Task: structure prediction
Amino acid sequence: MNALRNIDLNLLVVFEAIYSSGNITSAARKLGVSQPTISNSLARLRDSIGDPLFVREGRGIKPTARAVQLIESVRQALYLIEGGIARAESFDPSVDKSHFRIAMLDLIEPIIMPALMRDVQASGNISFEIIPAADGKMLKQKLNDGSIELIVADYQPHINDTACEPLGPVEAVMIARKGHPKIDGEITKEMFSALGHVAIYSDVWGRARMVEVLERLNLRRNIVYTVTRFWSFPNIVATTDLVAIVPAKFAKAMEEFYPLQTLHLPFSVPDEQTFYMTWKSGNTDKPHHIWLRKTMAAIYSGSETGRPVSD
Result:
């Protein structure tokens, strides 16, 4: 315990935030304080430990060998302290302040985030950072080092010491522009193969499963335009005669802003797909994290997307 006599425990919180964020500015934003405050705290901690802890690298910083040695012990200590306090606390987004960093597939963002932002915008206490959820190796690292708190995707990452629960099921549908000259009512298998399709380039949103289903049914998809983000689909489909396969809730959200029609696929997709939320086990009982997961699940279940409902 003698080693702790000259160290303010708040400095360890700052140390963990800087380590996870990779720069002073992000750490300040995470903790809700100014950049000079973070810099001053780091200077005090450096004096107490007798090591620079972080050195400049490009536009960011990297930890020294001493910082790497310390981080796991510091995180375990903070986790135990936080866990003890959290059991006696609750989280109220209208009063409490929090910053959430989430890795999320872009097709889930318009389903959940507009309604979630409307829920918290009046208080001004809650903020979010959303990053892509496509690079599994990068996400594993960020979840482990605390750079992100939640992964929302169509898969369960294989990461040690994590918890996971379903966000909800996914129904696949087709979207086409309203007034499409070749579509009048239901889509047939022949039409499905003849129409030009927009598709995702990288292996995102169960692409392998859809390909497998089509191959099993001996159906060909005429892919004439390939993109890297689902956000590209609505504008392309709404302004051309191309069609696309998307989740039904994504289609519903996009219909608020684009002249699109949603159509049933001319075949059934077995083994219903699911979106998942994954997080480090240490966050399971934290009140702010419980609030986030419950709120996101409720919004997804209720399909409250797009524009606010008018009075």
Summary: Residues 304-311 have pLDDT under 50 and may be disordered. The longest strand covers residues 162-170. The radius of gyration is 23 Å. The first helix runs from residue 9 to 21.
